[in-house]
Amino acid sequence: MKIEVLGIGCPNCRKLSGNVQKAVEDLGIRAEIVKVDDMADIMGKGVMILPALFVNGEAKVVGRVAPVDEIKRVLKEAGS
Q1: Does 75 fall in a domain?
Q2: Is 10 designated active site?
Q3: Which of 3, 18, 21, 51 has the least C-beta neighbours within 10 A?
Q4: Distance between CA atoms of residues 65 and 11, nearest Å
């Protein structure tokens, strides 16, 4: 599973990144977590509001910090 956290290092971006890490650890899954901070890459994905969470190339959360429980649900659905 590939998880991308899109953000430029703002507090909300860092919080989303931490929540993703916690969700992955809690679920005990193997995942590649990539932090995308290049604006050209972010805009290339069609994202205009940060932070954003992509799982396996698909936007799951955009423009807000998802709580750990929501991220767990998203990751479980993506792994099915």
Answers
A1: no
A2: yes
A3: 18
A4: 10
Domain that holds residue 58: 2-68
Residue corresponding to tokens 């992509």: 54
Confirm whether 22 is a catalytic residue.
no
One of 5, 13, 52, 74 is an active-site residue; which one?
A: 13
User: In this structure, are strands 58-62 and 52-55 parallel, antiparallel, or unpaired?
Assistant: antiparallel
Looking up residue 63, the CATH number of its domain turns out to be: 3.40.30.10
Task: Give tens-digit pLDDT for 8-40.
Answer: 989 999 999 999 999 999 999 999 999 999 999
